[in-house]
Design goal:
The structure is a homodimer. By secondary structure, chain A is an alpha+beta fold. The first copy, chain A, has three domains: about 10-155 and about 290-340, Bira Bifunctional Protein, Domain 2 (BirA Bifunctional Protein, domain 2, 2-Layer Sandwich), CATH 3.30.930.10; about 160-290, Bira Bifunctional Protein, Domain 2 (BirA Bifunctional Protein, domain 2), CATH 3.30.930; about 350-445, Anticodon-binding domain (Rossmann fold, 3-Layer(aba) Sandwich). Chain A has helices at about 15-35, 50-55, 60-65, 85-95, 135-155, 165-175, 180-190, 190-195, 195-205, 210-220, 225-240, 240-260, 325-335, 360-370, 385-395, 405-410, 435-445, and strands spanning about 40, 45-50, 65-70, 75-80, 100-110, 120-130, 160-165, 270, 280-290, 300-305, 320-325, 350, 375, 400, 410-415, 420-425. In chain A, the strands form three sheets. An eight-stranded mixed β-sheet of chain A has the order 1-5-6-11-10-9-7-8. Chain A has a five-stranded mixed β-sheet with strand order 13-12-14-15-16. In chain A, strand 15 (about 410-415) and strand 16 form a beta hairpin. The longest helix of chain A is centred in the first third of the chain and has 20 residues, at about 15-35. The mean pLDDT of chain A is about 95. At the A-B interface, helix 1, strand 1, strand 2, strand 3 and helix 4 of A face helix 1, strand 1, strand 2, strand 3 and helix 4 of B.
Chain lengths: ~450, ~450
Amino acid sequence: MSLIKPRTLNGFRDYLPAVMIPRERLMETARGVFRSYGFAPIDTPTLEYLEILTGKGSDETDRQIYRFEDNGGRAVGMRFDLTVPLARFAAQHINQLGTPFKRYHIAPVWRGERPQAGRYREFMQCDFDTIGTRNVMADIESVAVINRLLSSIGFDAFTISVNNRAVLTELLRHLDLADQSVAVLRCLDKLGKIGREKVAAEMCEVADVSAAQADKVLQLAELDGEPESIFEALPAITGGGDEALVAIDRLKDVFSGALAAGVPRGRIKIDVSIARGLDYYTGVIFETTLDDLPSIGSVCSGGRYDNLAGLYTKQELPGIGASLGLDRLLAAMESLRMLPNAATPAPVLIAYFDADHRDNYLTLSARLRDAGIANELFPDPKRLSVQLKYADSHGFRVALIAGGNEWGAGTVQVKTLATKESAEVAYSHDRPEELTSCLNRILAEELQ
Amino acid sequence: MSLIKPRTLNGFRDYLPAVMIPRERLMETARGVFRSYGFAPIDTPTLEYLEILTGKGSDETDRQIYRFEDNGGRAVGMRFDLTVPLARFAAQHINQLGTPFKRYHIAPVWRGERPQAGRYREFMQCDFDTIGTRNVMADIESVAVINRLLSSIGFDAFTISVNNRAVLTELLRHLDLADQSVAVLRCLDKLGKIGREKVAAEMCEVADVSAAQADKVLQLAELDGEPESIFEALPAITGGGDEALVAIDRLKDVFSGALAAGVPRGRIKIDVSIARGLDYYTGVIFETTLDDLPSIGSVCSGGRYDNLAGLYTKQELPGIGASLGLDRLLAAMESLRMLPNAATPAPVLIAYFDADHRDNYLTLSARLRDAGIANELFPDPKRLSVQLKYADSHGFRVALIAGGNEWGAGTVQVKTLATKESAEVAYSHDRPEELTSCLNRILAEELQ
């Protein structure tokens, strides 16, 4: 029989242990943070009726959906994000769930786009949303969640840029540009990439805006400095109408509330230039960049919307949410050398040295596990050099070695693999404490 | 615009928080156990080349695959189990990974079968395997992993039935039934369901076996009692040939090794009747039943195979693995009332009572979180009765209530929701200890 070539589809990938271990840890950290704020997990089917998925999408998204006819002749598709399923889910269950409804959802999505470096057709999304409240408390909490996510993952230096889209809307209304707002904001979103002049030119060209109007919009967008000075400048620039003042006050509230919630002042930036492309954001919006790696773009973005599920229900569902870019974060952590390089989740390898003592190795392994020390027992009594090579190449930190002599003397050799130091430590199945303390001490030391 | 009806496809389901919370906990527990033995996580694509998926499957599996042509004209399918992807993965990467290769994989799979009560077209699989070793150490460890999985999840009373398929094979060879072995074992697998007489009749009819031969097979299968007495009876029944004795010794080793690894004796049953349908098992096999709910069948099954990836590589990859039935376990835990009934992962609700003190609530919430106490802050200053109703219906255990008086006096009201008892506890942002100790004390109490 001829062999079938083992391969993955273009744009898809296998996750080997060395990559999957930190990826899984990242998801675990995110779950822990979400839960600590009372966000609850949900899951939805991979496959949905195609009409659900294409309801709101742009032509581009629609083209990217993996779609087919199932055995029952139904037109179905694989979800391409977690927002459309959330909208469908909320429309279907919100009366049972009640509001506020706070959920997180960590799950893969699929897009049949042309694969590029670092972009895949299957990738993980990690979203959290608070649905059913317009209160600024939920806006503040979203900023606090982002702060705790990034710091729990291990980042110190990052910036959460916050804006209120309503401030931009009020400025545009003041400038009589309400009708062109989508086009203007789309131009404005490019400010970071193409610079002031090109944005001004594009606004005039594409969005039918005068040079003076473009200048006003850019003046607002370029406000920089301490939050307080920005807050002070905003009323004059936006015209200072009642609704503009409400929008500015909301932004102030988000800032002061975030401080009260423990977000360090230096991590929050009021950036009235960010607009975020999606049309459905209506209020507070945010982006998060890593100070040491700003080039990779925002690692956590989101904002407030007025109506999540208008396609599926007449019930108005306002909310706020954001999405953590897991894959982007992982790539960043790799660049910044924040990832341990290990292909094993267990730090201790027990060498299997002497087949006559098989049961002793098994009991030792169980005793360590009972003490909370993850360990792997090598399954074959191969040469010690083979087992130590395995330990090195997999990133184990400690090898335990015991043969007939050690078992007789009631000791185990503890070999720290980074330093190649060995120590003989007392051990018996009845009294494992000396060994477990020794291991805990070694494992607590920082990896170099 | 007319609304799109929000609904899920037949055979698929949404997981609402009350179900998703324990489901996620279950997966977390499983991951923790796998890691403690050095099993590493992997992930593989949802979509594979169809030829990979249909390579080995039976006609029935093939029919159930969700398949389609992707935009590039490739015939693709959604994985229907995690074993075929593992085989493809191992064939592709084993030279890089080295052996032994120990992996776990928790991921959804899809089968377009007719939906039945409790069966879905999308469900989660949870597999662990040790590849690249024939040593009995890996067999023993698999039993130990199953024991630790079930006990970590919270079960006390369960039975791991262990057999060595080679014992059956040797008996069949001794009886001159080697050629009919698949048919005979398929009949034997029904012993628990249809009883001795019907199995004997079916063996004679379907498998071309004499009544005397069927009686011999059933005599072996019906061996019951203490492991030692079974081990004693086996040589005579199987004919006592060299290979039979080797097979029996292996079974003895698994038993004694599992005891050394800390598996309580009462949880292991040597059951020489289990054969497990799949043809590719060749050695030790196991099934796990819950003593309080045996009717739901095995919740963790698996066994040893000689060659995992023969379709994709000439490299022989022996191994052993098993699959934890997450959905079945969840259903069992619900039947046995082992699941807390909560729609929130946070036990504490902070009522938002007095909008003038917004920042105080935010800081309180952060202080509790810093102390490891997950809490949700109600986002709207609605009537207290509304907030307490929310707390009750979502399964919060404690509500914290503070208005202007409390904030002035430096106290918070702690309301235990099950007993409706309230206590006034000292609290300030600088000294949260009294409150956090009080909450930890309440939360440590067993739920009634």
